[in-house]
Amino acid sequence: MKQKNTLFKKISLLILTLCTSFAFAQTGSINGKVTDATGQPLPGVNISILNTTKGSATDFDGNYSISNIENGTYAVKFNFLGYKTKEASFTINNNKVTLNAQL
Questions:
Q1: Please, which residues have CB within 8 angstroms of residue 49's CB and are 6 or more apart in sequence?
Q2: First CA to last CA distance, the chain
Q3: Which of 39, 55, 58, 60 fits 48 for a cystine, CB–CB 3.0-4.6 Å?
Q4: Is residue 14 classed as helix, strand or coil in its secondary structure?
C-alpha cells in the first residue's frame, strides 16, 4: 500500500510540474496588413519568420496574424509573386506586435 501511495505522489508531482511549465510559457504574436504602393490590400502574400517554422498568408483584405511566438528578436519576410521581397525585424516580449508592410 505504501508503494502505491509513493507512486501516486510521484505521478502527481510530474503532472503538476508539466502544467506549471505550460502556464509560464513566454509568447506573443504579430499581426498586420500588407498593401501595394497604392494602398490596396494584397491577398495571398506569404509571411515567414526567418529561422523558424512559423508563417502565414494574408487574407482577402491583406491581413495576417501569427501567434505563439517565443520571446526574442526576429526577422520576417514578406514575399509575393511579381513584387519585390521585403524584410523587417521585430521583438516579442509577451506582447502583440503590429507590423504593416507595403510591397
A1: 30, 55, 66, 69, 74, 75, 76
A2: 69
A3: 55
A4: helix
Question: Grid coordinates standing for 42?
Answer: 494584397
pLDDT, tens digit (0-9, with 9 covering 90-100), for 42-78: 999 999 999 999 999 999 999 999 999 999 999 999 9
* CA angle, 30 then 68 then 20, to 5°: 145
Please count the residues of the chain. 103
pTM for this prediction? 0.73
- Dist CA 78 CA 92 (whole Å): 18
- Between CA 6 and CA 23 the distance in angstroms is 26
Cell match 519576410: residue?
77
Instruction: Name the grid cell of 72.
Output: 526574442
DSSP state of 41: B
Only one residue has cell 505563439, namely: 68
